[in-house]
Every structure is written in C-alpha cells, then in structure tokens.
Amino acid sequence: MDTKETEFLRLIGENKGILYKICRIYQDDPEGRDDLLQEMILQLWLAFGTFRAESKFSTWMYRVALNTAIVFFKKQKRRPDNEQLPHNFERAEEPSAAGEKEEQLALFYKAVQQLGKVEKAVIYLYMENQPYDEIAANLGITPLNVRVRINRIKSKLKEIIKTMNYEY
C-alpha cells in the first residue's frame, strides 16, 4: 500500500462515526445505508487529492459525505419503491430497556428522515455538539440562523414523533 492510501484509510478509520451517522440519517434500511456508505467512501477517495488540510479532515470529510448523501438520496427518490412488507408482524410482549431505547432511536431517525436536507445537516451537526459558529460555517448561514433553525427543527421533530406515535 502506498502512503496516500494508508493515510486515507487511517483518517477514514478515525472518523468513520461521521459516515455511519450520516448514513443513518439519510437511509432508513440497512441495505440503503450500506450502499450509501460505499458511495461516500468512493467519493472521499476520488476527492482525497483535493484535501488541502486548510481545515480539519473531519470537517472536509463531513462536507463531501453530506453532499454525496444528498445526491444519493435524490437519485433514490427517483427510483420506484421496492420495499417489501415483513412477513411476521408480531412484537415482543415486554421490550427490554435496551430494546426500548433502540426503538426510540429508530423512531427518532425515522422522524429525521422527514426533514429537509439542510435541516438534516443542522440537526446532525448539533447532535455532534458542534459549536453554532462551526455549524454556520459548514452550511454557509449565520450563527443566529443556526439557533433559530435548531429550535424550529426540535419543534418539528417533536410534532413528527407525536404523529408517528399516534399511527402505531
């Protein structure tokens, strides 16, 4: 392996959590997440030569991965829905605390799926505990706009989740 490839793999390994979270936000099913992850890594590798280290690698990687996810999401929306219904609809009688937490997390990610692309990016960066200034810089908006959007997104997510709970 050459040094460029070794460096790329090291940096991806150190920051892979970013990729997994973006996949989880933009893709609901495991196969879609796997496809998106593969596409993001490919695009990162193709663009790796353009990384000038003027910012942190994680910031650059986030931007490339997010743009890839948005394009991937748009392409997927154009395809007909091939989702199959599960054959077994039975639920466990008493979910464990861990199972309940997983269910809540799945519900949250499903709600995030209904947000717009910029809203998804804002909530992702907010969940990563990024300062408002850095969120604003990543998205090309003002820090004040970030605060307003976060509050609106939180309210929107609460309403979406409330609606989803009524549907069950």
Topology record:
Layout: H1 3-14, H2 16-26, H3 30-47, H4 57-78, H5 97-113, H6 117-127, H7 132-139, H8 143-167
Helix pairs in contact: 2-3, 2-4, 3-4, 5-8, 6-8, 7-8
Termini separation:
51 Å
Beta-strand share of residues: under 5%
Low-confidence stretches: 88-95
**Global mean pLDDT:** 82
Describe this structure in words.
- The longest helix is centred in the C-terminal third of the chain and has 25 residues, at 143-167.
- Helices cover 74% and strands 0% of the residues.
- The protein is globular and about 55 Å long.
- It has 168 residues and is mainly alpha-helical.
- The chain has helices at 3-14, 16-26, 30-47, 57-78, 97-113, 117-127, 132-139, 143-167.
Key phrases:
8 helices, mainly alpha, 168 residues
Short recap of the structure:
Helices cover about 75% and strands about 0% of the residues. With about 170 residues, it is mainly α.
